[in-house]
Protein: 3-isopropylmalate dehydrogenase
Amino acid sequence: KKIVTLAGDGIGPEIMAAGLQVLEAVAPKINFEYETKARNFGGAAIDADGHPLPDETLASAKSSDAILLAAIGGPQYNDAEVRPEQGLLELRKELGLFANIRPVQIFEALKHLSPLKAEIIEGVDFVVVRELTGGIYFGEHSLNKQFARDVNDYSYEEIERIIRVAFDIARGRGKKVTSVDKQNVLATSKLWRIVAEEVAKDYPDVQLEHALVDSLAMKMITNPSDFDVIVTENLFGDILSDESSVLPGTLGVMPSASHAQNGPSLYEPIHGSAPDIAGLGIANPISMILSVAMMLRESFGETTGAQYIEDAVNKTLLDGVLTKDLGGNASLDEMTSAIINNLC
Amino acid sequence: KKIVTLAGDGIGPEIMAAGLQVLEAVAPKINFEYETKARNFGGAAIDADGHPLPDETLASAKSSDAILLAAIGGPQYNDAEVRPEQGLLELRKELGLFANIRPVQIFEALKHLSPLKAEIIEGVDFVVVRELTGGIYFGEHSLNKQFARDVNDYSYEEIERIIRVAFDIARGRGKKVTSVDKQNVLATSKLWRIVAEEVAKDYPDVQLEHALVDSLAMKMITNPSDFDVIVTENLFGDILSDESSVLPGTLGVMPSASHAQNGPSLYEPIHGSAPDIAGLGIANPISMILSVAMMLRESFGETTGAQYIEDAVNKTLLDGVLTKDLGGNASLDEMTSAIINNLC
Ligand SMILES: CC(C)[C@H](C(=O)O)[C@@H](O)C(=O)O
Ligand SMILES: CC(C)[C@H](C(=O)O)[C@@H](O)C(=O)O
Structure:
């Protein structure tokens, strides 16, 4: 299996190394054979090649079996002409990564970190499914000194395939899909709701409910345990999936997957590149490590290996091994070693 | 002073009556003279005239000094051709109500209702300023069976005037503006950020910070006391202002104002028409009553009258007079009378 690794910027290289150590440790236990290729991406690639997604990186990514991405960006690119994020948007588009999946779960050992009351986050366990290659992100943009325009386009097919992903996931879980739109205002949302209803006919075992995005932004906080699978378009998904990360109280334990119709999937932590602590060896590698677990399960069918990693992370946290962001003082290396030691 | 009242649907008529009782009680204390005209609006107007914003209602609203709106909508219109919300969008556009203002505050007596931990909501006191007549709400919408499009337009002037509103408000409060956009993706957000920087030059005493909408959706929950004035475009404002209402833990105590460049302002509760409890006499009138207070202050310069009402509401809640939604069993009339009795 060929895995392309994009370490990127800030804490990216450190946490990627941690993720790969865990992969190396779990592989023999499950007879998983693989090779990795590190490629330039993001700010690091801008510095080296002037472009955040060099041709060679794209070509390697396309011919891989899965892609691990750590983190990109940094303050030095904030006002730059070419920005690391452009590489990410291009990569999503080029690989057709239309389905972004973010599981939201509360770790027992980290419950106290949540800004929400214990009774509110009790039983929270849902997945946000975000459309990732359409909508206002990829419509026409125009800008001059006096006026700006963005165009939000969705076709029936673009909506249908992401709704199907949501229903397929729900079928294997709590059998409920919450489809989020702004149907009382947007044409794209009117179509979205029609398609959701249409697709639902193929899944009589799964319940479909609709929610307006403004209302869902409340309910996600007031009633987070009501949800199983939340599916929405690109921009709403950007906002809601970030909002959902307040439930666990830390960005440090949340992985994500992005899938295409065909071809490799991409796995990455949801957090950023944390330039302020880059190189200090204190970054929390858990989101990256859990992204490796997601890759094993979703790209390679290695359920056991994924479970080993997830259990080891859980145990490590319960043991009280916590990095600074989680309120402890374990270093990145200490955390990584503890997780490896806790692998079955 | 001519006040047009739009009671609308569901609990609208009941809470409007409560708001007007409080106005009637406070008026002699501050020598405030006024007359009210009730007009049809929303679902009630669809039922009567086939249109949610009848010509007569619009004409009366235009020639008024202020407008009070209670609530509109109901399940019977969900799949209707003509919907109550269309009347609201038309009214905003016709009156040029470009600046929507929502104060977010925590009532001491209701703190326990918040889904957030006490230490998180400590000191929360900010205002969301939402652009209300531009953006994707009012751009071209097109829809057919296969494809849908919405267009998001902003001109320099549209952005400038709302940013100025935010800075003016911040100048009278905590002197900090948080401007929210999605500048790494949207052209309208790039222009937004440029204009915000430009306007900031006229307010050297006010601090400007920028935030991406996804990141703000988190920080509003994790660090809500960091904010003073949050300003954003129409769609982001819709989502974020609803999200902000989770902080007090109830929609039942939040008023809003919408201002135009010239002409009357509109005041309304942020909650909906609660059709399930309509007519039962148990609705919570506080958002409506606080909207009356906002009207006195912002349209008529009656600061004292506004303060009388706000203090009376505060005292009533501290006295433990609570409607059902707030965990008590006071009726709408009992709550309204208690507030009136507590007026200085
Ligand atoms: C970096 C940015 C373009 C990106 C997005 O908005 O999609 C990020 O916020 C994300 O959610 O992955
Ligand atoms: C009813 C709807 C069109 C409206 C909006 O989206 O503006 C509402 O959600 C609001 O915030 O006032």
About this structure: Chain A touches chain B through 52 residues (CB under 8 Å). The longest helix of chain A spans residues 156-171. The radius of gyration of chain A is 20 Å. The pocket of 3-isopropylmalic acid (ligand 1) is lined by residues A 85, 88-89, 238; B 184-185, 214 (CB under 6 Å).
